[in-house]
Amino acid sequence: MSMTTEHQPPTEDTSPAEDADSNEDTPGRVRVGVAELAVATGDTRLTTSGLGSCVGVAVADPPAGIAGLAHVMLPEPTSGTEAKPARSMARGVERLVDAVEDAGGHPDRLEAKIAGGSRMLDFSGVSEGVGERNVESAREALSDHGVAIVAEDVGGGHGRSLEVVPETWTLTVTSAHEGVEDL
Amino acid sequence: MNVDIESLGTFSRTAQEGAERAAENLTGMTGIDASVDVTEVTLASADDLARADERVGIAIDFEGGIDGTSLLTFSYESEETLLDTLLPGEGLDESAVAEVGNVVTSGFIGGWADHLETTIDITPPEYVEGTGEELLDSVGFERERAFVFRSEVSAVGEELDVEFHMFPDDDSMREMLTGGEEQIPIEKLTTLREMAGAGARTASESVSAMTGIDTGVDITQLSFVPVETVPGELADRKHVGVVLEFEGVLGGYILILFDEASAREVVTALVPGTDEVESFEGRERSAMKEIGNVMTSSFIDGWANVLDTTIDISPPQFVHDMGRAVAESVVARLGQRQAFAFLFDATLRADDREFDCEIYAIPDKSGLQAALEDLDPDATAERTTKAGSL
Questions:
Q1: Of A27, B26, B200, B205, which cross-links B346 as Cys (Cβ 3.0–4.6 Å)?
Q2: What is the pLDDT of residues A36-50, one digit of tens each?
Q3: B326 interfacial to chain A (CB closer than 8 Å)
Q4: Angle at B150 between CA B258 and CA B355, to 5 degrees
Q5: How far is residue A119's CA from residue A155's CA, in Å, rounded to a whole number?
């Protein structure tokens, strides 16, 4: 068997999200890694785990049941190529908003919910306050796109895991010590 | 052989793309939402790869733009998960697993074919089974081989644990990694791994001496990874431990993280009169910081010796939180300055009980490169201590 530069999937080409949608028994789940983003519709859940000083930005068109989630790592872009779509905030939010619109989200109906940006470690130095700066830059980037933040759970000194359900536009925040909260 | 660090970074990313495609293929075949936890290029040592647990898998050789051999393995539980979704006929389990293995491996190798803009031929899959050592033997693993690309794939809510190892031939690696600006002789990287291994053993001895729990180093590994993939190395469950920053010629971070049950054992041993640890406040927290401090200085002393320099260590920051969130808070700091990191990790275990402690050291890249330039490859970690004050 031979691999060429032509990408030939072994089966019908289905992305994980689409594939999950087709399964009606259990809602699908799309895991969003650090510096990544994804969009889903209906009851397909978007999850991301282990948010420390990073910020999870969820953007949705609630009536359409379309939502996207980005796990953004840095407030400012760094030099060099950024292989991951949501490594830094301004570009990450731009790509997230584009992705939600590409999936059918209407620009005028978009809303955002954000969570994360904690300060778990208290070291001095230039990298200090990256969580706080991540939250600030999320506000700026969303505002630049005219997307209002309708709920948030930011700051503190603890980690969070997130789950977004597009059809109900729920952002569930689970913390190691603070329990579970729906935004 | 000299290693160009930038190329190593590029190939680490290629491996990541291959892994994502492999996970997509697995999802396409089984309907399980599989995703990639970790992809790293590690400086392989047979000891680290030859794990004791038994797994099943598929060995496939590849040849073309890059030559070598690959091993895709599953735990027995994962094999059952896969067979549940595939429903093969009676007696066809092996061929069903081989078919999945073939398709998933094609994903990995396809990522490389794309990146190298070439064709890579793969052999038919061979079903293999056994301990890490037996699996390595079955693919004809050459002990002196330098680099291994390793990925882990799993799924939320399913028993699925897939590990992929790609062992490129030395000639292929030499071709890919020479040239470029930032050349490091591979012997120096080997020295680095060895001194970190020695540091982990010293740290383990400190734990044993302080707590009476007989611990040893189970796995040590030196890898080169995109910084954003570091949190994926950790489980999402809660960990207890410390994070320390080290500074000097060589700067960076150390994370020492116990699972909760092991943390309780350690604290019970350290704090007189403690029967059961309810929370990690007060004396319990101080005890955790103290052992973290001692383990870190045990670990770092060896580095300071080999690099013939002073390394200062910050006071320990106590953490009791999701492992990934802790790691992510560190890489968000590191990621502002560098895209890739050398990651050293070691796992400490005890023979007579469940015990899990992980040590991660992430030196900052520019400091490490400068330190490596001055490094004498014959240096060892066994000299007298020159580490800085605690």
A1: B200
A2: 999 999 999 999 999
A3: yes
A4: 20
A5: 7
pTM: 0.82
- B93: pLDDT strictly greater than 80: yes
| pLDDT exceeds 90 at position A19 | no
Question: Which residues in chain B are closer than 8 Å to A8, comparing Cβ atoms?
Answer: 110
The reported pLDDT for the residue numbered B383 is: 40
What is the distance between the alpha carbons of residues A98 and A90, in angstroms, rounded to a whole number? 12
Query: How far is it, in rounded angstroms, from Cα A149 to Cα B363?
Result: 37
Q: Does domain A28-182 have CATH number 3.40.50.300?
A: no
Q: Decide if A54 is catalytic.
A: yes
- HSE, side-chain direction, 13 A CA sphere, residue B238: 18
3-state secondary structure of A24: coil
Q: For A51-62, give one letter per residue: b (16+ CB within 10 A) or e.
A: bbbbbbbbbbbb
Q: Which of A51, A54, A72, A142 is catalytic?
A: A54
Asked if B207 contacts B266 with a C-beta cutoff of 8 angstroms, the reply is yes
> Taking Cα atoms as reference points, which of B363, B379, B106, B118 lies closest to residue B245?
B363
Q: Report the distance separating Cα B58 and Cα B139, nearest Å.
A: 10
What would the two tokens of residue B347 be?
Answer: 């796992």
Show residues of chain A in contact with B323, CB under 8 Å.
50
**Which residues of chain A make contact with B325, given a CB cutoff of 8 A?**
50-52, 118, 120, 158-160, 176
